[in-house]
Write a structure and sequence with these properties.
With 168 residues, the protein is of the alpha+beta class. The protein has a single domain, classed as Gcn5-related N-acetyltransferase (GNAT) (Aminopeptidase). It contains five helices and eight strands; from the N terminus they run ββααββαβαβαββ. A hairpin with a 2-residue loop joins β3 and β4. α1 packs antiparallel against α2. The protein is globular, with a radius of gyration of 16 Å. The two termini are 20 Å apart. The mean pLDDT is 85.
Amino acid sequence: MDVDEDIIVRDMNEEDAERLDILLEKPAGVQSIYKSYLEETNSGQCQYVVIYTMGQLAGYAKIDWKSEYEDFEEEGIPEIKGIHVLEDFRHKGLGRHLMNKIEEKVKHRSDYCAVGVGLAEPYASAQKLLAERGYEPDGRGVFYIEPEFVQDELEVDDYQALMMIKKL
């Protein structure tokens, strides 16, 4: 567990999953996606970390130990599959704290860490954060999350991502 003043970053547990359900207003009767995250973690295929600030759950992130992106999978490079800072806590440096913890964990398994970042405007903060941390495009161009959406004329949307990589 990392503690920096009033910020705590640690592995997700069942209580965190329940809090995320409440904070993100999971509809009644719907199975908890966050508890399924714990099941994924227990299987060893990934790992989730959470971040707290001033005693409040502020976000979470996921590391996939086996990337779904073929080029990274072949090279055994873990992939960050999401950094989520809750809206009320954004623009306070919490994403950097999550990245510190993720990179620390990845470093024990690989010399590299990979991440895909969307090209659309909502991902601008993530793009900036990754560039500041030394992530570079992997040199393979835009990755289409859903290739069937590729058209002759492309509009930037949530189906396009740039895969990035960093030597740790």
